[in-house]
Design a protein that fits this description.
This protein is of the alpha/beta class and 309 residues long. The protein contains 12 helices and 10 strands. The structure holds Fe4 H S5 (Q46) and zinc ion (ZN) (2 copies).
């Protein structure tokens, strides 16, 4: 197969876009495509400061790479969760930190590193052990901690927007799950861009229309070293099942995932109204200052025991 732009041998076939590209033109196309998405959803401008949530995986590092190639002011944040694989004992977090730091150093980029255990006294695994005796996966605790830390750094360091590496496969799988369960609240809020609210940074997903295999190919062609393993708690998640099902549909009919997601975004306002934000929280946590439902310590401060100190 030949490259659509230059006629040389193609390095990647993209039946979903009805084209194939050589390495050079693919490495040009990904930033151009991302830029179109940034503009379409009014995510941010070159004058704004962006904080990229970096996990050491292909998507977040590829996104950071693309943003800096496009000339955006993008710093990174890496949160060391202290997650260890309970089976193998391998330290997933330690590995992902090495790849994140290495990328930042190679490109002369600023990376904020927050170590959960050093800062709050316990790792995510330990907090989970204490609060659920290890009976539940740590994902909801992990999500709460990550959200809190990212919002705090974005606020304290004056970032305008928080960018995450969610790709089209992630978004389509989330949409699939939310549709199967008709979780209207989530369907209302699923968006490439969530506006800022007092205490919460604006959130953007510039890779929301990049297929996972495109993001992986980009990382590979740009020689970006990333952690291959997923978080040990990611396995078995429903979203992985949804991704597999969507991949089967995509194989039979290229473009299915893209249509499912993009057509949903077009129909979203008609189906659920324009509202993209949750009801603003008027009260503030007396310990950390982040917004809460009540004037009491927020869920994060209660979780890490900051309300007992
Ligand atoms: S890092 Fe944390 Fe994820 Fe691991 S513990 Fe679950 S939420 S799976 S994105
Ligand atoms: Zn070409
Ligand atoms: Zn708090």
């Amino acid at each position: 197969m030949k490259c659509k732009k230059c006629g040389e041998r193609a390095a990647i076939k993209m039946p979903q876009h009805n084209m194939a590209l050589c390495r050079e033109h693919f490495l040009e196309w990904i930033p151009q495509h991302t830029q179109r998405v940034i503009e379409k959803y009014h995510m941010f401008t070159p004058k704004e400061k962006i904080l990229v949530a970096v996990s050491g995986g292909k998507d977040s590092l590829a996104l950071w790479d693309v943003l800096q190639r496009l000339g955006y002011q993008a710093d990174g944040i890496y949160i060391n969760l202290g997650i260890t694989d309970p089976q193998s004992g391998l330290t997933y977090s330690a590995k992902s930190k090495i790849f994140s730091q290495q990328f930042a150093d190679q490109h002369g980029l600023k990376l904020h590193v927050v170590d959960v255990k050093e800062t709050y006294g316990e790792s995510i695994t330990e907090i989970n052990q204490r609060s659920t005796r290890g009976r539940a996966k740590p994902c909801s605790i992990c999500g709460l901690v990550k959200r809190h830390i990212m919002n705090q750094i974005a606020h304290d360091e004056g970032y305008h927007v928080l960018a995450t590496g969610h790709n089209l496969d992630d978004e389509a799988a989330t949409l699939f799950g939310n549709t199967l369960n008709w979780t209207v609240d989530m369907l209302k809020r699923q968006s490439p861009l969530l506006p800022a609210m007092p205490g919460f940074a604006r959130k953007a997903k510039p890779f929301c229309r990049i297929y996972e295999r495109e993001s992986a190919a980009y990382a590979l062609m740009r020689n970006i070293a990333y952690v291959y393993e997923e978080c040990p708690f990611a396995g078995g998640a429903r979203s992985i099942q949804y991704k597999k099902l969507l991949n089967q549909l995509e194989k039979r009919s290229p473009g299915t995932k893209m249509n499912f997601y993009v057509h949903f975004l077009k129909a979203q306002a008609e189906l659920f109204g324009e509202e993209k934000t949750a009801i603003p929280l008027e009260e503030h946590c007396p310990i950390c200052g982040q917004p809460t439902h009540s004037g009491q310590a927020c869920a994060f401060c209660r979780l890490v025991g900051a309300d007992k100190k």
